[in-house]
Amino acid sequence: MAETRLYAKTYSDVAYVEGMYRRDPVMERALHKHCKQYFDENYRGVFFVGDEHKVEIFQESFITLWEKIEKRKIYVEDGILKGKDGAPFIGKLTTYFMGIAKLKFKEWVRDRHTGQDAEEEKKRKAKDAEIYKEMLYDEGENAMLEIISDCISHMSERCCQILTLFYYKEKSLDDIMLELPTFKSKNALKTEKYKCMENLRKSAQEIYHRYLNA
Amino acid sequence: MKIEFQDHIDDYLLDRMSDEDSKVFEQELKNDDELREQMEFTKDVQTATKSRNEKLAKMQEWEDDYEWEEDRGVAARYRPTGSGYESCSIPSMDQTRSMPRFSGRQYLYWISGIAAIFIVGFFLIHNYMGGKEDMMFNPSSIEYSTMRGGGNYENIEKLLVDKNYEDAMKQIEIEETKIAEQRTATDSIADEERRAYDRMLIQEKADELSWMKVYALLGADRRDDALQLLDELRHTEGEYKEKADSLYLIICK
To answer: Are residues A111 and A152 in the same domain?
Structure first.
C-alpha cells in the first residue's frame, strides 16, 4: 500500500487499460478526458495545427488508442502494462498517445499537401515505415483491419456517408437515397458505393505492402 | 473486386439472405478465392465502420458533458470521417445531436455561481451603505474555511505523511463532528440558494475528510473499514468518486 499515491489526480495507466478492455463506461470516459487534457496541454510542443484540426487529430488518435486496447495490442498482464511483442510499456500511456497523435498529424499534413517531389516523398515514406509499423499497424492477422480503420478516416465525405449508413446504420439502398437525395437512382448509389469500396481497398493494400511487406 | 459479387456479400453479412441462399453462398465461398477475399474485405469494412461510429457516438456524448474545453474557440463537432471540417454530417444519426445536454452537476454549478454573486453583492452593498443593523445573516454560524470551500486539513495530511495514523484518525473524527454541526447550522439558512451553496461546500469538506480517513484506516490496518468507506465514496458524486473507484479496484485486485 505504501506505493499508492495519496492524492492521485487520475487513474493509473493499468486501471485505464483494464477498464477500457472491460468496456467499463466510467473508465472509457475517464481515459478520454485524461488524454484530452494531456493533448490540449501538450500538442503545441509536438505539432502546430489550428483548433478545428486539433479536434480532428485528437479524435483519430483516441480511436486508434482505443482500438489497440480492444484488440489487446496494449494490455495488462500480472499488473504490468505491456505493448508490442509482450514488452513492458516504456513511459506513460499519454506519451504513447501523443506518439500516435504525431503520426496522425503527419497523415493529416500528407492528405493536404499533395504534389511533393516524388523522390522526397519516397525517402520520407521509407523513414516513416518503421515508426508506422511500431505504432499504427502491427503485423498479424488483424493488420488489414487496422489499416482499413485508418483508411476510413481519410475517405471522402460522400463515401463516408454511404458506408456509414449502409454498414453501421444498416439502411437499405432505398432508405439511403432518401437521406442522400443527390442520388437519382438506386444503381447510381450502388455504383458509387462500389467505387468507394474499391478505392478503400486499393488504399489499404498500398499501405499494407508499403509498411508490412516492404 | 467484382461488382456482381458485392450485392450477395452485403446481403449475407447484413442477414438479408434466406437460409437456403446462405447455404448456397457459403458453398460458393469455399470454391472461389476471389469471392472469399472480397467477402473478408467487406467484413473488415463493416467491422471498422461499426467500431469507429460507436466510438464517435460515445466521444460526442462525453464532449457534451465536458466544461473544460474553454480554449477550443470553435463549435467543433465530431465527424465520422477526418476529411474536412463539419464535412460528413448525417442528420439522422443519434450521435450527432446538436443540443447540449445539461447534467445535474452543471445545474449545481449554475446555482453555486448565482449564490456566489448574491453573497459577494451583499458584502459590497453592505460595505458601501455602512449599515450594520440590516445584516441578513450571521457569518459566524459557519466557519471561514467552510465558506471558502474545501477544508484546511494540513495538520491531518502531515500526520498521515508521518504515518501517525491513530492521531490522524482522532483529528478526522473531531473534524467530522464539526462538519455535522455545520450541516445542522445550514438548516437554519432561509435563503434556498445560499443553503444549497453552503451544503455543497460542506459536502466537499466531508468528502476530503473521508478520503483522508481511507488512508488513515489503511495505515491502521483496518482494510475492511477502508474498503467500506471507499465503496461509499466511489458511489458518491464529487471530486473523489473516480479516485475512490480507482483505489478500490487496486486494493480489491
So the answer is: no
Distance separating alpha carbons of residues B230 and A8, to the nearest angstrom: 14
Show residues of chain B in contact with A56, CB under 8 Å: 76, 79, 82, 85
Task: Judge if B139 and B244 occupy the same domain.
Answer: yes
Measured between alpha carbons, how far is residue A122 from residues A127, A128, A151, B102, B232 in Å?
A: 9, 10, 20, 50, 59
CB contact under 8 A, A55 and B76: yes
What's the CATH code of the domain at A160?
1.10.10.10
- The verdict on A27 and A100 lying in the same domain is yes
Q: Express each pLDDT in B2-16 by its tens digit.
A: 777 888 999 999 999
**Number of CB pairs, chain A paired with chain B, less than 8 A apart:** 155
Closest residue, chain A, to B13 (C-alpha)? A167
Whole-number CA gyration radius for chain A: 20
In a domain, B28, yes or no: yes
CB nearest B59 (choices: A59, A167, A179): A59
Domain hosting residue A32, numbered range: 10-116
One domain for residues B41 and B148: no
- B217 to chain A: closest CA residue: A1
Pick the residue of B47, B250, B252, B253 with the most A CBs within 10 A to test the interface with A by mutation: B250
Contact B48 A145 (CB under 8 A): yes
Domain count, chain B: 2
The overall average pLDDT reported for chain B is 74
Whether residue B118 has pLDDT greater than 90:
no
pTM for the full model? 0.56
What's the mean pLDDT in A153-169? Answer: 92
- Quick check: is A129 in a domain? no
CB–CB contact B52 A149 (8 Å): yes
Q: Is the Cβ of B42 closer than 8 Å to some Cβ of chain A?
A: yes
pLDDT single digits (tens) A103-160: 888 888 877 765 556 666 666 666 666 656 666 666 666 778 888 888 898 888 899 9
Answer yes or no: is the ipTM higher than 0.85: no
User: Shortest CB distance from A32 goes to which of B40, B50, B62?
Assistant: B62
Instruction: Report the share of chain A in percent with pLDDT over 90.
Output: 38
Whether residues B242 and A30 touch (CB distance < 8 A) is answered with: yes
Choose the final residue of a domain: A116, A150, A183.
Answer: A116
Nearest to A43 by CA among A30, A59, A67: A59
Question: Into how many domains does chain A fold?
Answer: 2
B148 min Cα distance to partner chain A (Å): 21
HSE toward the beta carbon, residue B101, CA cutoff 13 A = 13
For the record, the C-alpha cell of A79 comes out as 499488473
pLDDT confidence of residue B224: 87
Q: Assess contact for A149 and B74: CB atoms under 8 A.
A: no
Using pLDDT thresholds of 50, 70 and 90, give the confidence band for residue A34.
Answer: very high
